[in-house]
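Journal club prep, notes for RB
We'll compare a predicted complex against what the paper describes. Inputs for the MTE case:
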Amino acid sequence: MQIHAHAVVSGLMLLGTMAMAEQTDIILDVTGQIEDGPAALDREALQSLPPVTIETTTVVTDNVHSFTGFLMRDLLEDLDAQGTHVVATALNDYVVDIPMSDFYDYGVIVAYEMNGVALTRDDKGPLWIVYPRDDHKELQDIRYDYRWVWQLDRLDVR
Ligand SMILES: Nc1nc2c(c(=O)[nH]1)N[C@H]1C(S)=C(S)[C@@H](COP(=O)(O)O)O[C@H]1N2
Ligand SMILES: [Mo]
């Protein structure tokens, strides 16, 4: 986990340097109870976390899709998040409270790619919380469906 933390931190430092020269592309803000303070992460920092792919049906279609992203628990561990839940906010101001235990009970990912193509703002991106719903029957439930936040923008650790 320390190695990944370095990867995220160096991505952030690079970002700090670039910010002076040009407009940066922050796609995820992580705030709240974090040992290292709030983090503003760009695609490069997020993609420095170990990639994980999930093949699953989605809440919005019956077809199986392939989602690639990073494990939510890897990000939260790297930032040393200390809390019992995470409030996820989307670009359309959708807000949902997710228990931290979900990320340890299941390999929940934050996807940046679907079927090998980067997710975009006009189609559920740039980030989409994806549960491995086909691997766990209990996840095939409305209680979990509403935690699949698309257009994810911010995580607040509480
Ligand atoms: N950004 C965003 N994510 C969201 C929602 C939303 O309105 N905005 N709706 C949630 C709910 S209530 C469900 S059931 C699933 C599927 O919603 P959809 O059918 O509207 O895509 O996505 C969840 N993620
Ligand atoms: Mo819903």
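Talking point for the session: The chain has one domain: 6-157.
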